[in-house]
Amino acid sequence: MGQPMAKNLLRAGYTLTVATRTPGKAEKFASDNSALGNVRAVSTPADVAATSDIIVTIVTDSPDVVDVARGESGILTAAKPGTIIIDMSTISPQVTNELAAEAASKGIFWLDGPVSGGEKGAIEGTLTIMVGGDSDALERARPVLSAMGKRITHFGPAGKGQAAKLCNQIMVSVNMLAVCEALTFGAKEGLDLNTLHQALTGGAANSWALDVLGKKSSTATSNRLS
Q: What's the pTM value of the predicted model, to 2 decimals?
């Protein structure tokens, strides 16, 4: 999701300095997207921090965020006081609180801004962004967030954005289980799953999981059965 989000920042006119944990990936992104705007690749998160007023991170899990922030060449080794770090990963609220406190001790603002909307939302710039952290820092960063998402909600101090994302994950996971059970039942009953999908998305059973993921599952299953 990070690449389409970064592309939307370029389209909005922002100058980007990018680093990735996978060697060569940042360089390829910069080369492939130079026509969209001013973008350059660097080697480490510290290199990004040294020249950036707002830093956006999105990685896999809590240990990854800790490494990007606190590592030997991490953001916190080079970020200037007043810098805003927006972590858009989905991680532990407790880890977020610890990193936010460490950042604050250096005069740096830490916003947790996990997202919902999937790759489609990242590409279209319509992500839902759940934010925790300093409200003034959020207002400074809001134009950046608005280039990537359409619904930006502030839930309170650091960690509350991650708590809101956990609520999202609970609902999504239960809904996905229901979609899987329903489509499996439909397949066993001999129903055409594409037809079933069209019917269910027009009624009270519809949801993001059914509309987006259910469509993929219905098509794949129908292709296997044909």
A: 0.89
72 residue type, one letter: E
137-164 in b/e form (b: 16+ CB < 10 A) is bbebbeebbebbbeebebbeebbbbbbb
Residue 106 among the catalytic residues: no
Cα angle 183-184-188, degrees, rounded to a multiple of 5 = 115
Compute mean pLDDT per 10 residues along the chain, 226 residues long, and list them.
96 97 96 96 98 97 98 97 98 98 98 95 97 98 98 98 97 95 96 96 94 79 56
Span 2-157: which CATH code?
A: 3.40.50.720
State phi, psi for 103 to the nearest 5 degrees: -65, -45
Q: Which residue of the set 7, 165, 215, 216 is catalytic?
A: 165
